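Lab notebook, bench 4. We co-purified these components, and the gel suggests they stay together. Before we commit to crystallization screens, I want a quick structural picture of the whole thing.
Request: model the full complex, all chains together.
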Amino acid sequence: MEMISFEQAYDIVINSGSKTGTEVIPFTDSLNRILASDVFSDIDLPPFNKATVDGFACRRPELGNYLEIIETIAAGQWPVKPVEKMQCSRIMTGAPVPSGADCVIMVEETEILPSGKVRFKGSFKKENIAVKGEEVKKGDMVLAAGRKIRPQEIAVMASVGHVSVTVSKMPEVAVISSGSELVEPFEVPGISQIRNSNSSQLLAQVAMAGATGNYYGIAPDNVDQTYLIINKAISENDIILITGGVSMGDFDFVPSVLERAGVEILFTRIAVQPGKPTTFGLHPDAVVFGLPGNPVSSYIMFELLVRPLIAKMMDYNWQPLNIKLPMNEKFSRRFADRMAFIPVTITDDGFVSPVEYHGSAHISAIPEANGIVTVPIGKQTIEEGEIVSVRQI
Ligand code: AMP
Ligand code: MG
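Here is the predicted assembly.
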């Protein structure tokens, strides 16, 4: 199968996969979920004319005079007396402003005379009243579907009494690692073995992307065992991620096992570096990614292809955060026939610095990186000081 461009691969992936559907949950359980229907307010906000400072509610034309204090209004209390000529009420932040009053003067700008009257000694700046409904009117939309629910969104739902919220169901994502050299992290590798780092890394990436990860273990380099695991995973999940076994080695038979399991393979090579052997296919029950075994390649291909698909399946209007910054050193490469993704660090003084990185197996380099810079096909060098677009990771 021929090699395709990253853009072609992205197009194929993003147009695959079905919507996950929705469910209704308590708003207090909705952190990090994707809001699936718009939220409307059941009340005006603020619900009444509200004092925004501690002070005295009075009538603006009378500010130069000595005013009689007729009442003290605490937050949570409804005022009983209207403010009339030459009067004011002592009022606390958050309390309803009494009728008759059109401003609240700050306590710091007043003096109380021995007579018990109060006098304004500042210069008038503002009313210090939040007017009923000025923020939100009853029936207004306060949150639009498609956003991720953060603590801020939870506060809005609390304010408008939206205690049951419709969210997108989380895609079920199977994680499988393939390779007879692999042992689990709690085991001590034998002389020809290495620890399986891809599975834990992918399960963490799946969780960060807002989906549910289901681990299916290590598939040894054996066609029948790999087939059984893949088949089971396909019947139980929306997305299958299998790492390793997609290169050109004698035991890299993941694509052929996928075909045997009824997966229609759409691509097996992308013109990218790292990540070239990334494989993708469709089954009636799931979409399947064969990710490269190299941990850095697997990490980057998840970020660039799997994560956008997970967002799309949940109708999450996610956009990766890209910022434009200058390079702090020259970058050059010998071949420019593939699109390159270089892990970079954004320095404290706002420059982009490629992390020291010796190929796609250099796993200890990735924790240093907080961004990825894309180098297009045909571009061999990035000059020192050249502005690049950094995608946050
Ligand atoms: P493969 O794609 O199977 O040829 O694997 C490419 C490289 O990635 C080899 O050096 C593997 O040992 C390594 N590798 C494969 N799977 C994993 C894994 N789950 N965790 C860590 N390294 C892996
Ligand atoms: Mg292998």
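The first strand starts at residue 22 and ends at 26. Worth comparing against the SEC data before the next meeting. The chain has six helices and 28 strands.
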